[in-house]
Write a structure and sequence with these properties.
The protein has a domain of 78 residues: GMP Synthetase, Chain A, domain 3 (2-Layer Sandwich), CATH 3.30.300.180. Helices cover 46% and strands 12% of the residues. The protein has seven helices and three strands; from the N terminus they run H-H-H-H-H-E-E-H-H-E. Strands 1-2-3 form a three-stranded mixed β-sheet. The termini are far apart.
Length: 152
């Protein structure tokens, strides 16, 4: 009796065109996304960055994160990027000597950063030397500045 019912159900399904498949279903070529369907994480992040207009700041942050790979380990040991605004990259150096070195390499740095970020993204490199506060004033402070460059 169960076999008769199974045969009857198969015959009814065949009439409606809903027979079970014997071979596995093949996926359609290329990604297909309908509303609410999951998507790849990388694609979702790219879409989010594009929708919010965050592509350039994210790219600049990526370059800042790979600073040592871009400028080399020796220069990266003495400098670090601190900001990017209106095409200008602000770089802090740990001594006046390294600040001067970065100023001499500014044109090369602009070219290298534009290779990473896209032509015309960086127009200028601004270098900031070591930041020490104002000299203290008081009874026991001498009036002379002392020897020349004592920052390194």
């Amino acid at each position: 009796m169960a076999r008769e019912k199974l045969a009857q159900a198969k015959a009814d399904a065949a009439k409606r065109g809903q027979l079970p498949r014997r071979e596995p279903r093949r996926r359609a070529a290329g990604p297909r996304r309908e509303g609410g369907d999951p998507q790849l994480f990388g694609r979702a992040i790219r879409d989010l960055l594009s929708d919010r207009g965050w592509e350039r700041p994210a790219a600049v942050g990526g370059v800042f994160g790979r600073w040592a790979d871009i400028v080399g380990p020796e220069l990266a040991a003495h400098t670090k990027p601190e900001g990017f605004e209106d095409g200008e990259v602000l770089i802090a150096a740990d001594s006046t000597a390294w600040a001067t070195q970065v100023r001499l390499l500014a044109r090369t740095l602009v070219r290298r950063l534009n290779e990473e970020l896209g032509e015309g993204t960086v127009t200028r490199v601004k270098v900031k030397g070591p930041q020490h506060g104002p000299r203290p004033k008081g009874l026991r402070v001498t009036g002379s500045r002392g020897p020349g460059d004592t920052y390194g």
